[in-house]
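anyone seen this seq b4? input:
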Amino acid sequence: MINSKFIVVEGIDGSGKTSVCQTIKKILKKNGIKKIIIVHDPGGTVISEKIRKIIKNSYQNEYIHHKTILLLFYAARIQLIENIIKPALKNKTWIISDRHDLSSLTYQGGGFGIKKNIIMKLKKMMIGNFYPDLTIYLDILPKFGLQRIIKRGKLDTIEKNNLDFFNKVRNSYLNFISKDNKSIKINANLKFNIVKQEIQNKLEAWLKK
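predicted toks r here
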């Protein structure tokens, strides 16, 4: 039996992360892995869910600074890692997470322009060398991602950003993923059945390593 692993699904809004997390769970089960939980970042604990609501919803007319949002993300992330993810991994449970630390580097860094060295210092202080065993990055053109989230209905605070913002986020993702040997890039512009098959092929190949 393979030791428990921490798998993260990343991508811009509208890339299909939520559906892909469920797909990964089914693939893992078909490959004999029984103990699996899915989490989302931010969220997963009582405190983290409260922070998630602050991040995703505008409160009255108060402007939430980008650095404030960055700190909120890490506050929620620490709760999730320490209270849910690490204990589950020790209990031989596999974790699939809808977003993790890379989202801060790409959204707050690439999108909102907070300097990379600030985020990296914060990351080191807050979560140290805790990394995913595998990152599955869903690459979608921002214009298609925006079309998907608009069809879903009401947009949250982050989803209301313009096309230029999401282009910056995507470019940041592509830059980081190109340097990460523990990542898999998936073309999420295609029909979902094709995306699922590509994920299955690559994930099963990874499981056999």
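The chain has a mean pLDDT of 94. The longest strand covers residues 134-139. kinda curious what u guys think
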